[in-house]
Amino acid sequence: MEQVKLGLRENWKQFSLLVLINAFVGGMVGLERTILPQIAEKEFDLAAKTAILSFIIVFGIVKAISNYFAGSLANRFGRKNLLVFGWIMAIPIPFLLMFAPNWNWVIVANVFLGINQGLAWSSTVVMKIDLVGEKQRGLAMGINESAGYLAVALFAFLSGYIANQFGLRPYPFYLGILLVILGLLGSYFFINDTRQHVIQEEQTSRVPRLQQIFLETTWKNRNLGSVTQAGLINNLNDGMVWGIFPMLLASKGFELQQIGLIIAIYPAVWGLGQLLTGKMSDKFCKKDMLFSGMLLQGIALILLIWAETIVQFMGISALLGWGTAMVYPTFLSTLAENTHPLDRAKSMGIFRLWRDLGYAIGALMTGILADYLGILSAVIFIGILTCLSAVIIKVRMRCGEGDSIKIWDWVVGKKANSTCSNSHKLIQSMEYMVA
Q1: What's the pTM value of the predicted model, to 2 decimals?
Q2: Where does 112-260 show beta strands of DSSP type E?
Q3: Rounded distance between C-alpha atoms, residue 70 and residue 139, angstroms
Q4: Angle between helices 79-88 and 103-116 (to 10 degrees)
Q5: Most buried of 81, 105, 210, 291, CB within 10 angstroms?
Q6: What pLDDT digit, counting tens, does each position of 96-145 carry?
Q7: Nearest CA-CA partner of 171 in 162, 158, 179
Q8: Is 207 helix (H, G, I), strand (E, B) or coil?
Q9: pLDDT tens digit string along 324-348?
């Protein structure tokens, strides 16, 4: 058997195919982001914010559980098999949404969507990390998450545009049928499993095995625990934005097409930004990346209470997207860096369990707050909570990734932190960022 090689360049064909597949996965979520809250209010006469956000609550819980089991199942049955099964679970989704006679059908569709996202997205993430090895994880995750969330943005805009032209149903969900066909056939016929890459990396890895994977990933390990809590809070505020943002914009008198544009900017900046921030996380201190990103998200959310014009909302949406771009690839590259190859899939599943429970917690929490105190009160609360998450990272996390450079030192031209031995490495890093 030919020995496998690790690296982005060495595996660019499979890596590129996985990027495309992950874009299809992201597109499935994008279909819902603009129009489902509108369908709830206009077609099913749901008024309570908690009831409208129930689809996000169900999606978040199911995706979180799927993520948790994805780690163990990937090791047991193979990454590719898990990816294919994730796409099989997506087959009913567009049909349930197109023909739903009541809101319960939408809930069932989001059960399938949660399974699809948990298994398919997790598989593509772990497979890309397997392929590239330890040197380019941040860049790999930046490309991966960029493709996924650019697709979220594109399909959020397209579904809003189609709904504005032809009605809320069924036409926007024809896009979902196309995505399922492309994703399933592409995964089955063109994707190869990456087990041999894991075996190859295992031979050279110096990271110790985790003794209590669940506890250490959840909180016990300073770096892993900091990442996990931030991941939960990040998706908690994303769940709020997903459900509440369209309602807030509708209350300001914006049309559906305008709402789709504003909402699409957030994942578009999130997606495009990760092409840069993923590369940054390979060189800069991950603690700095995570602290800055979470703080920026919190500030952007709080700014929403003063926004009135479409330009202001577009600017805040872009700011929120950039803050999320700072943390998303950094979450995954930090996890990969702090786990042994044999622990990686399971630790990633545990992280994604907590992270995606944030969707459910955020939707439930903001729904209750919005019903009793108003939408703006819910937004302020989540914004403050996001800032507190940044503080936890600042206090608890350590910056100890080889020759990583602290962002502030790089900005002011000082020497890198103590792990970087001389100014020559700083110059190399600056050249790396410009290249």
Answers
A1: 0.83
A2: none
A3: 23
A4: 170
A5: 291
A6: 999 999 999 999 999 999 999 999 998 999 899 889 877 788 899 999 88
A7: 162
A8: coil
A9: 999 999 998 899 888 988 888 889 9
